[in-house]
Amino acid sequence: MRISLHLSGGLRAVLAHLPETMTLHVDGPASLRDILVRAGINPLLVMVVIVDGERVDKDVVVDQDAEIVLVGPMAGG
Amino acid sequence: MLYGYAGTILEVNLTSGRATKTPLPENLARDYIGGRGFVARLLWERLSWGTNPFDPENLIIIATGPLSGHLVPASGKTHFGTKSPATGGYADSNMGGHFGPALKYAGYDVLLLTGRAPRPTYLFIEDETVELRSAEPWWGQGAITSEEGLKNELGDEFRAITIGPAGENLVRFACISHDFGRQAGRAGVGAVMGSKNLKAIAVKGTGGLPVFDVEGLFKKSREAYEKVKAKPGFTGWTPEGTAGITDWVNEVGAFPTRNFQTSFFPGYKNINGRAVVEHLKITDKGCFCCPTPCGKYGKAKTGLGEVYVEGPEYESIAILGGDCTLGSIEEVAYANYVCDELGLDTISAGGVAAWAMECFEKGIISEEQVGREIRFGDLDSVVYLLEKMAAREGIGDLLAEGVMRASATLGHGSEEFAMHVKGLEWTGYESRNAPGMMLAYMTADIGAHHNRAWALGHDVAGSAASVHDLISAGGSKGKLAKATVAGKAGRVIELQHIRPLFDCLGVCRLQYMELGFEVENYEELFFRVTGRKMSWDELLEVSERVWHLTRAFSIREVEGFGRESDYPPPRFFQEPIPDGPNEGHYLSREELDILLDEYYAGRGWNKDGIPTEETLRRVGLCDVAEQLAQGR
Fold this sequence. Notes:
heterodimer, A: alpha+beta, Ubiquitin-like (UB roll), two-stranded antiparallel ribbon, globular, B: Aldehyde Ferredoxin Oxidoreductase Protein, subunit A, domain 2
């Protein structure tokens, strides 16, 4: 599977060494948590995951190419 | 010419009714930028030492920033400052909405209020016209009801701020309300308005603002909006707003639950962002020029009634939901509405209610004292306590003092779990395994507030298992490791300069902090508006100056202020977290001392947390150094 990862500003604030966008090739199917670990991202640092425009739980399994947005920690108002 | 600014300070003496207009000093704009910076400097200069927060001589300073009211993303912020009735020290609180831009269009960067009106009054401002008018029809009415009444009388084009009964009755954590659901919530700014018999301020402005480079600003602003909307996270952030972080805060074991007895709320999915969208939300609601509207306006129906309410946003969910353990988003929203209408800060009021319920559970206060049984998770109990607080009736008179004073009066160990710093109730992040966040709370200038420095993400990055370990373990769920304490102070200091800088500029920080809208954009927008070329680092130097100044103010005003003022309540350094992802963790008093020692050293303060004369001079506060040294 071709996985495009887009990291939000809040996530890059704590993972400054990672680029805003990265592409992975992952054997599927794979859970989002596994995909994140393979990308070098601790899933605990990801607050929100959006797969192809839909907000999903981190335990969701991805079985095809996907565009994934990762939103990092952020505070309340 | 001071580009970007309206150019005038409006001072109104509520005792005499006299209004005075003076030019905005150029050196004030240069050295303090605006907003929070203006509040801090003017409080230092204009407030007589030792003034009681409820004396007529106390000041309310309402200040905008140079970017407020311009075509800049999220430029609707307004800052409110005073000497806090909650802490006795420095207070400021900001809100979004549209009040600040309206004030600038009327011609004023700063509104400075002194004195006490002889009877319930509201301040009417329409461009040059400044009048005190009777607020008798609304005195005793709710903050939202009063705003609606004012708009009905004056017209929708007026922007109004109001207080509710809590402010009128001098509840020490009363807030100022605006736009039917935005609040300057913290540190009792609404109570000081009440002490001045000032129910509301209504403003209509029709003027313009001088801009250094109009065409350049339009171009850069358009680009800025497009950049914000293109950011990864934009589509994930906006639909749920701040409520969307509820799941994550539970996942990392930082969700205040049962008066901070623990840090994980098993029912969190019933009160999270998705619940807001599915059960409450009617529409998004944004502030002036906001590309990412985080407000969620909706309707909540409970056994106690049906209400229209903005929110609840995350902090209200954490404290009314987790900390008071209300089990559904409808109940949280209902309690949120009750706070808004009564003019209570949801954070402090919810914290006080949670403290009272724990006191009741432990037998420290009785059914006879309270007037009924109260218990966690019961909406009736929470609403009962909120109404008593706002009216200062029965037990409410004690609760209206806030947990620091109430626990000192009540005793019997209730001080151990009175969750505050400096007299201000704790907000929505349990920090017993988050040393950076703990330090941020300990050293925040207004008390236990999260918006000076939000370090929780960095704490989790430090305490979560390494990615290598995760691969070995085959996943990422489970317990967090005990966080290390050393080395946190530098990051907290850095954050304490970044977030408050947005409060000086007069813009919301969400676009930067949460979406990663780059700081270079703010340098550019600041230049196009003001004509001043300042790098981000130079702007941060102003923010640092303000930080030392607010510390100096509290040292000046609070007897014995220093290191002891910076410790959290004993629960946080004596009780391990009983369950959840951070089970067993806490920070010992020795670890808190390591945090403070590193922080004070990094700040250039002495071991007791007092800025040294050398530090104050370095940041351009020579007069403050001299006055503190002379004790006057």
